[in-house]
Structure formats: C-alpha cells, structure tokens
# Entry
Amino acid sequence: MADTIITVQGEHSAWYPAERATVSASVHAWGDTREDVFQRATTATESLRALVEPLHNTTSGPITWWSSDSVRVWTERPWNNEGAQLDPVFHAAVDFSVKFSDFGALAEWVEAAASIPDTAIGGIQWDLTEATRTSVTTEVRSRAVKDAVSKAAIFAQSIGLGSVKAIALADPGMLGDPAGVAGGMPAPMLRGAMKASADFGGAPALALKPEEIAVSAVVDARFVAS
# Structure
C-alpha cells in the first residue's frame, strides 16, 4: 500500500508587552528670510538635543539610543490661485529619532519636546528588545511546528490511520505549493497607540498606552501517515 502524504500549514501567534519605544520628532521652520529660518531651526534643534542628551548620557538613562540629521535648508517659490509666482519661502528642517526604555519618561519628553517652537512629534514605534525578540520568535516558531503536527495527526485519524512522521518542514511556499508562496514568515507586527489623559489635580498630562506586540509564525510541513 502506498504511503499517505499529508501536507499542512502550522501557525501560532503570541502577544508580548512592548519594551522599547522609538519616537520621531522633527524641526521645521519656514519664513521669508533665510537667516531667520536657519536660526530658528538651529535654536529648536539645540533645545531638542538638550532634552535628549541628559537622559542618554547615563548608565541607566531612559534613552537607549538616538540620532539626528544635520540641518537641511531649501527654498521654494509658491504660486497663488491666479497663477502668479510669489516671493521665495525659505525652509530649514532636522529629523530626530529617540528610543526609550521607560515609557513614563517618554511621555514627559514628548510633552516637553512638543512645546518647543517649530517642533512636531511624529509617530511612535513600539518594539521588543533584541534578546526578547530572539527568544519569543524561537518559541512561536516551535509552537507553529507543533500546530502542524497536531493538524496532520487529526487528518490521519480521520481516515483511519494511526500515526504521522514528518518528512519535510519549511517556510511557507518552499515545499512546492504555489498557494503558500505569498504567505512568507511574517515579521513581528508592531502596534501601539498614544492617547492623552487628564490629571484633574493639575494641567492635562500625556499618557502613552502601548498595545501588546504580536509575534506570528507560519510553517509548511509534510508528513507520512501510517
């Protein structure tokens, strides 16, 4: 009797609390005078750096890493609604990325940074540490394989066979099944939310509420059932 081949796809997802948050901030000044615009951008940039460096230059500071661009300066000639070109508008901009391990310190920093003239706060990317990511990815992939074994065993039992033996394990699409090619091994999905809450004992305070990070894995598996 020919062997019965069973091919299945195992998957598993798990959720973990965020451990790191990288906030994007930008300085953007514009106006009619190049010198004034450059000076405003430089002043705002130095103010932002003054908020970053004391929190980073310590052994256990809440900022684990940060970077910033050099000042970029450009000019544009806008047009009005009558088709006439207006006087030049000068721009100067600098982008910052700052990674925090302490979300309370992050909230305080965002409030302080947002109060600097010509400064805007962009999105926040939530993440795990490299060590945690490595550990949980291994666990999730292992559970995806166990899910594939469980599915194959159920299929075998449903047709009166007793046991299954794995003969191939692969990332989706690598067992020659075209339907699985688009699946891939999903990277960890990072999701987070930033919301403001009010402290009724004083001024409104910003509270950051990260969502848990979903880590998912998918595996294709082929078994022989007997």
In short: Strands lie at 4-16, 20-31, 63-68, 72-76, 89-100, 119-127, 164-170, 193-197, 205-209, 213-225. The CA atoms of residues 191 and 211 lie 6 Å apart.
